[in-house]
Amino acid sequence: MVDLKLQLPDGFLNEEVRCGYTVTKQRKEVWAVELDLLQEFMRVCNKYGLKYCADGGTLLGAIRHHGFIPWDDDLDIAMLRSDFEKLNEVAPAEFKKPYFWQTEETDKGSARGHAQLRNSDTTGIIKTEYERQRNNNFNQGIFIDIFPFDTVVDDEEKLAEQDLKRMELLTKYREILDSGDYFYYKPWVDEVGKRHFNLKKACRHFKHKLLRDSYVPIYNQFIKEITRYNDIDNSKYVADLCMPLPIKRIRRFRADFDNLKEVDFEFLEIPVFANYDRNLKMLYGNDYMTPINTNSEHGGLILDTNKSYKWYLEKRR
């Protein structure tokens, strides 16, 4: 495993069983890299007085497991857009190699809508992107997700209009990115060395080659759309509008960002909503304290704590 700033407790990397699920040494090493990223992220946020808190599976893990959900493979952090933009301003100067602050502005082609803090000496490649975006060169080290939360208007009609528009734009720019290698007729090689060729995808690449489509103007429209109502600061909800999920799953109570508390997360502490119950019920239902083994929402990751993502990108070519 790569060297970390984080001091790991004795035995942390040992394989163990949690909730009947075997957490392997390999998974523990991935967790260690992510906790190291979290510690560095918290250092910078605390230095500049920026608010942040656990969200999604990380929030659930903090409350239910006092750490990672045993079968989870990432960390999710929430910030209001105002704090997120302040962090964007200082991040390039604060995060030094191997840490890398990734947004579309710092790493063209990543185009998430949110930020990721990555360890450049490791590999955390989303398999679908490995398969569909064969010419991407953006940083794909192990990461933690940092999501900006934007204003959700109380007017249901305006909300429905915004939600429809942001999903249309998100779908369109992601499709162009997935075809953005343009006409690439050669078979591609997956992470285990198997060769693949798909005629339908090749035709779609050829179409984009002819049309010379670019994801950039559509992505910019998408960002403009999700931040449309941010001059309103008294709405009931804010939401992680960059995620392709139903609005009911991605919205949070605005007031909860002003009322946080620290809880244990593995051997660190992380801020969470003091009123976490109502947010977790929106996310996972009333029975969220009952563990259910599910797959990561990333759809699979290529994870390696020993090799840089660059090794895998070279292998793919």
Beta fraction: 15-25%
Global Rg: 20 Å
Uncertain stretches = none
The count of β-strands is 15
Distance between the termini: 25 Å
* Helix-and-strand structural type: alpha+beta
User: Helical percent range?
Assistant: 25-40%
Mean pLDDT: 91
What is the count of helical runs? 10
What about the largest sheet?
A: 7 strands, mixed
Order of helices and strands: EEHEHEHEEEHEHEEHHEHEEEHEH
* Overall 3D shape: globular
Domain LicD/FKTN/FKRP nucleotidyltransferase: 45-285
Protein name: LicD family protein
Organism: Faecalibacterium longum
Fold blueprint:
Elements: E1 16-18, E2 21-23, H1 25-48, E3 53-54, H2 56-64, E4 76-80, H3 81-94, E5 99-102, E6 115-119, E7 123-126, H4 127-132, E8 142-152, H5 156-178, E9 188-189, E10 195-196, H6 199-211, H7 216-226, E11 237-239, H8 247-250, E12 251-253, E13 260-265, E14 268-273, H9 276-284, E15 301-304, H10 309-316
Parallel strand pairs: 4-8
Antiparallel strand pairs: 1-2, 3-4, 5-6, 6-8, 7-15, 8-11, 9-10, 11-12, 13-14
Helix pairs in contact: 5-7
Domain LicD/FKTN/FKRP nucleotidyltransferase: 45-285
Protein name: LicD family protein
InterPro entries: LicD/FKTN/FKRP_NTP_transf, LPS_cholinephosphotransferase
